[in-house]
Structure formats: C-alpha cells, structure tokens
Design goal:
The protein is α/β, with parallel strands linked by helices. It is about 25% helix and about 10% strand. The chain is flat, with a radius of gyration of 39 Å.
C-alpha cells in the first residue's frame, strides 16, 4: 500500500448541498425553508424553550419539593478484583495509591471498596468505607482494614451551636465619686 492508494471509507464524505439551483433538485427557490416567517430569514435562530411570547411551559408549571443531590457524599468505588490486579502482597492501599494506578479519577469525597471478584493477596487498606463482603475477603486473604474517620462540617456546626463560648465581661470602671465641697466654703456663705 502506498500513500496514493489511501481513500476515505465509502459513505464517510458527502458532496456539499447546493440549494437554490432549480426546482427539480427539491431544494430550489425557497431552499427548503418555506415561505416567509422568522425561520426563513438569514441568521434567524429561536432560543430553546421560546414559545413565541406565550408563557413557556417551564414557567407555567409550579416548582415543588427539594433535592438533596448537591449535598450528597460522592464515593469513588473500587472492586476487590481491581486491587488483585493492580497491587502486590503487603502494599498499602489508600486514595493516593489508587489514583497513582488509575483506579480512582476525578473529584470524590472518599473511597469505598466493594466485594466483586476474588482477592488472594494480603493488603493494608486505608479507606473511607468498605462493604461487609469486601472486608471479609480482605481479612481472609491476610490483609487488614482501617477506616478513615472524617469529621463533617455539619457535625462541627452542631457542636458550635450546642456549646457557645461565654465571653467574660470585664467589670465596669467605677464611677468617679464627687468630692464633697469643703466646709469652709459653706461657712463663708453663711457670713
């Protein structure tokens, strides 16, 4: 095969559609845009959801309820079979080592180990969560599991509300006492 023998796959490249070149093509005269109206004009576009000035459906329907999805804890899941393939016996498995071997990618709040597959190597796991089946397999293979304790922001806020710090009030400065007027002045006034 030579460079001049290379050709695109049949059907992958098409001729440019030429419009307005006669009625028999099916795209003559109005070029497939119909007669008049906003959509027939050049450069015309109508944004998605616009209903011609009528109150759109997304504003006609009421909004109800609340969704907690944005506050959920998102765990990256790794199966026991993946650990068997990527790690050697005696290795420490944590989020950093899982990211290094490509088993965890992107943003996550922690790592959870699941029990799919078999494990024959003794590994030291330092993870946020682990399923009961996975923990059984790890311990059966001679490994150990230590769970990472993370304190949530919500827990800290509750503690702060429960135990407000008491500020010690400094004693107010004593008001200056007015010195009694000397008796001599009082005696002088009587004379």
């Amino acid at each position: 095969m030579r460079l001049h023998d290379l050709k695109p796959t049949p059907g992958s490249r098409h001729r440019r559609r030429r419009v307005g070149k006669g009625e028999s093509s099916g795209l003559g005269k109005t070029c497939g845009k119909g007669h008049k109206g906003q959509k027939s004009r050049s450069g015309a576009s109508i944004r998605p959801g616009f209903e011609g000035g009528q109150m759109p459906i997304y504003r006609r329907l009421p909004r109800r309820g609340f969704n907690n999805a944005q506050f959920r804890t998102n765990y990256a899941t790794v199966n026991v079979s993946d650990l068997e393939a990527k790690f050697e016996a005696g290795d420490t498995v944590n989020e950093e080592s899982l990211r290094a071997c490509g088993l965890v990618k992107g943003v996550c709040d922690g790592v959870k180990i699941l029990g799919s597959g078999d494990l024959a190597k003794g590994l030291k796991l330092e993870v946020d969560k682990i399923s009961a089946g996975a923990q059984e397999k790890v311990e059966k293979a001679g490994g150990s599991v230590s769970l990472i304790e993370k304190k949530s922001d919500a827990g800290e806020k509750k503690e702060a509300k429960a135990k407000p710090e008491k500020k010690e009030e400094a004693p107010a400065p004593a008001a200056e006492e007015k010195a009694p007027e000397p008796e001599a002045d009082a005696a002088g006034e009587e004379e």
